[in-house]
Amino acid sequence: MLHLLYILAFTILALIAVANLIRNLIMFSFDRERPYPGKPSSMGNQGNFGYFSSKGQYIPHPELLDNAGNLIKEPLLVMRSINVEDARQHLDALYEASPGHKSENSEEA
Protein backbone atom coordinates (compact mmCIF):
# COMPACT_ATOMS: atom_id res chain seq x y z
CA MET A 1 0.00 0.00 0.00
CA LEU A 2 2.86 2.33 0.82
CA HIS A 3 4.34 1.76 -2.65
CA LEU A 4 1.14 2.97 -4.28
CA LEU A 5 1.22 6.11 -2.13
CA TYR A 6 4.82 6.83 -3.25
CA ILE A 7 3.91 6.29 -6.90
CA LEU A 8 0.90 8.59 -6.57
CA ALA A 9 2.95 11.31 -4.81
CA PHE A 10 5.76 11.25 -7.39
CA THR A 11 3.25 11.21 -10.26
CA ILE A 12 1.62 14.35 -8.86
CA LEU A 13 5.04 15.99 -8.43
CA ALA A 14 6.01 15.06 -11.99
CA LEU A 15 2.77 16.52 -13.37
CA ILE A 16 3.35 19.75 -11.44
CA ALA A 17 6.93 19.95 -12.75
CA VAL A 18 5.85 19.39 -16.37
CA ALA A 19 3.04 21.95 -16.05
CA ASN A 20 5.52 24.46 -14.58
CA LEU A 21 7.96 23.78 -17.43
CA ILE A 22 5.30 24.37 -20.07
CA ARG A 23 4.12 27.55 -18.34
CA ASN A 24 7.72 28.89 -18.17
CA LEU A 25 8.32 28.11 -21.85
CA ILE A 26 5.18 29.99 -22.81
CA MET A 27 6.12 32.97 -20.62
CA PHE A 28 9.64 33.07 -22.09
CA SER A 29 8.27 33.04 -25.63
CA PHE A 30 5.99 35.99 -24.80
CA ASP A 31 8.88 37.77 -23.10
CA ARG A 32 11.11 37.32 -26.15
CA GLU A 33 8.54 38.91 -28.46
CA ARG A 34 8.05 41.93 -26.20
CA PRO A 35 9.86 45.01 -27.55
CA TYR A 36 12.41 46.62 -25.24
CA PRO A 37 13.15 50.34 -25.26
CA GLY A 38 16.27 51.32 -27.18
CA LYS A 39 19.41 52.00 -25.28
CA PRO A 40 20.39 55.65 -24.84
CA SER A 41 22.66 57.23 -27.43
CA SER A 42 24.99 58.44 -24.66
CA MET A 43 26.29 54.89 -24.33
CA GLY A 44 28.48 55.31 -27.40
CA ASN A 45 29.80 52.29 -29.22
CA GLN A 46 30.08 50.05 -26.16
CA GLY A 47 27.82 47.24 -27.45
CA ASN A 48 24.71 45.98 -25.74
CA PHE A 49 26.29 44.58 -22.57
CA GLY A 50 23.76 45.48 -19.92
CA TYR A 51 20.17 45.01 -18.93
CA PHE A 52 16.99 47.00 -18.41
CA SER A 53 15.67 47.66 -14.94
CA SER A 54 12.01 47.26 -14.03
CA LYS A 55 11.59 51.01 -14.70
CA GLY A 56 12.82 50.59 -18.30
CA GLN A 57 16.15 52.26 -17.52
CA TYR A 58 19.27 50.83 -19.20
CA ILE A 59 21.89 49.63 -16.70
CA PRO A 60 25.35 48.74 -18.11
CA HIS A 61 27.23 45.63 -17.08
CA PRO A 62 29.33 46.24 -13.92
CA GLU A 63 32.57 45.22 -15.66
CA LEU A 64 32.15 48.16 -18.06
CA LEU A 65 32.24 50.64 -15.15
CA ASP A 66 35.28 52.03 -13.34
CA ASN A 67 35.53 52.48 -9.55
CA ALA A 68 33.58 55.76 -9.70
CA GLY A 69 30.73 54.18 -11.68
CA ASN A 70 31.56 55.86 -14.99
CA LEU A 71 31.63 53.99 -18.30
CA ILE A 72 35.06 52.87 -19.45
CA LYS A 73 35.87 54.44 -22.80
CA GLU A 74 39.09 52.56 -23.63
CA PRO A 75 39.27 49.00 -24.99
CA LEU A 76 39.26 46.27 -22.38
CA LEU A 77 41.77 44.04 -24.14
CA VAL A 78 44.78 45.19 -26.10
CA MET A 79 46.84 42.63 -28.00
CA ARG A 80 50.09 43.23 -29.79
CA SER A 81 51.60 41.00 -32.41
CA ILE A 82 54.75 39.06 -31.58
CA ASN A 83 56.77 36.67 -33.71
CA VAL A 84 57.26 33.01 -32.84
CA GLU A 85 60.89 33.31 -31.72
CA ASP A 86 60.14 36.13 -29.27
CA ALA A 87 57.21 34.17 -27.87
CA ARG A 88 59.39 31.08 -27.47
CA GLN A 89 62.08 33.11 -25.66
CA HIS A 90 59.49 34.60 -23.29
CA LEU A 91 58.04 31.17 -22.54
CA ASP A 92 61.49 29.68 -21.96
CA ALA A 93 62.38 32.53 -19.60
CA LEU A 94 59.13 31.98 -17.66
CA TYR A 95 59.77 28.23 -17.48
CA GLU A 96 63.35 28.68 -16.27
CA ALA A 97 62.23 31.21 -13.65
CA SER A 98 59.50 28.92 -12.29
CA PRO A 99 60.07 27.45 -8.81
CA GLY A 100 59.69 23.83 -9.95
CA HIS A 101 62.31 24.10 -12.74
CA LYS A 102 65.51 22.13 -12.21
CA SER A 103 68.61 23.22 -14.07
CA GLU A 104 70.49 20.76 -16.32
CA ASN A 105 73.48 20.70 -13.96
CA SER A 106 71.42 19.41 -11.04
CA GLU A 107 69.84 16.69 -13.21
CA GLU A 108 73.22 15.28 -14.25
CA ALA A 109 74.53 15.00 -10.68
What does this 3D model show about the protein?
The protein is built from three helices and two strands; from the N terminus they run H-E-E-H-H. The protein is mainly alpha-helical and 109 residues long. It has one domain. The chain has a two-stranded antiparallel sheet with strand order 1-2. About 7% of the residues have low confidence.
Mean pLDDT: 79
Q: Which residue ranges are poorly predicted, with pLDDT under 50 across at least 5 consecutive positions?
A: 39-46
| Morphology call | flat
Give, in order, the helices and strands: HEEHH
Q: Got a strand count?
A: 2
Strand content: 5-15%
Number of spatially distinct domains? 1
The total of helices stands at 3
Compute the CA-based radius of gyration. Answer: 29 Å
**Structural class per helix/strand content?**
mainly alpha
Distance between the termini: 77 Å
**How would a textbook summarize the main sheet?**
2 strands, antiparallel
Placed side by side, the strands forming the largest sheet appear as 1-2
Helix amount, in percent?
40-55%
Pick out its properties.
mainly alpha, two-stranded antiparallel sheet
Short description:
The chain has helices spanning 2-33, 84-97, 104-108, and strands at residues 50-52, 58-60. With 109 residues, the chain is mostly helical.
Topology:
Blueprint: H1 2-33, E1 50-52, E2 58-60, H2 84-97, H3 104-108
Antiparallel strand pairs: 1-2
